[in-house]
Amino acid sequence: MDGDLPTENFHLISSCPCWAYTRKGKATRKRALAFGVVRKLKFEKIMKKIVCILIFTFLSATANAAFVENLKIERVQASPNGGFLLFFDKDVHSNCVTSGKNVVYAYPDKAGMTDSGLKSLLSVALVGFTADKNTAIHFDESSNECWVQYVTVDK
User: Fold this and answer.
1) Dihedral through CA 120, CA 126, CA 127, CA 132, nearest 10?
2) Could you read off the pLDDT tens digit of each residue along the chain, which spans 155 residues?
């Protein structure tokens, strides 16, 4: 080598071919790239399925849903089965006839309501009631009880 440092595809220290420039290295990179693309495609496919399932679940749960806003809660009544009723200052819907057109029900296991969801719903409703703020409700209009699904309080 006449004292010259090697060039081309050799490391200066070991005089071995650099794997970055050999066929084996390129093939490994191509496989790694292909694996990454396949993994990304599988992830996207799984995410699309999850999104579709969530959309279907939401649409099926709210198929008979109605939304009414600018209501003031006039009374909150607890019921012995763990639920409660909300009485508003004006009629909510013509289908809500069990206790009056201005009343909606919130009970566990009705319209997808869980026990923890019911507690959250009650706390939001009580904030609207005590602060005398406008509220909006999302409820199942297909029943005479008009089962509440969501309550929001406006500032």
Assistant:
1) 150
2) 455 555 555 555 555 555 555 545 555 666 666 666 666 667 777 777 776 566 655 544 545 678 888 999 999 999 998 999 999 999 998 888 888 899 999 999 888 889 999 999 999 999 999 999 999 998 888 888 889 988 999 88
pTM (whole model) above 0.85: no
Task: Delimit the domains of the chain by residue range.
Answer: 19-61, 65-153
Specify the CATH number for 65-153; select among 3.40.190.10, 2.40.50.110, 3.20.20.330, 2.40.50.100: 2.40.50.110
111: left (phi over 0), alpha (psi -120 to 50) or beta: left
